[in-house]
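Give me structure tokens for this 108-residue protein.
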Amino acid sequence: MPRRPDEPADELFQDSERLIADSRRLRDVSRQLLRHVEELRRLERKSRTVPMGSPEFAALSADITALSREVFRLSTEQETEGRAISPQSATIQDLDDTEGHSRPSPSV
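Here you go.
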């Protein structure tokens, strides 16, 4: 006898798929944040080696400002997603480890 599509098991499966998708979305935002923070560090270190007030310094400062704004936007998105996701014991790193993704570099 074929199962009806509205059985509790189907609902549980759909909830599970939604939780996995939400977790991956949160993980992706976290990855973007880490990449941007690393890039901010690189740009800021570079800006410390160029003459203050030079066109190169001004350009680096503008890049740093733009990237900082993106970090703020992503951190706000991460906060929103983090508050909306169902509580669970798994971490973002657990998800990466389960899906075979490498750990972010420890330089952050």
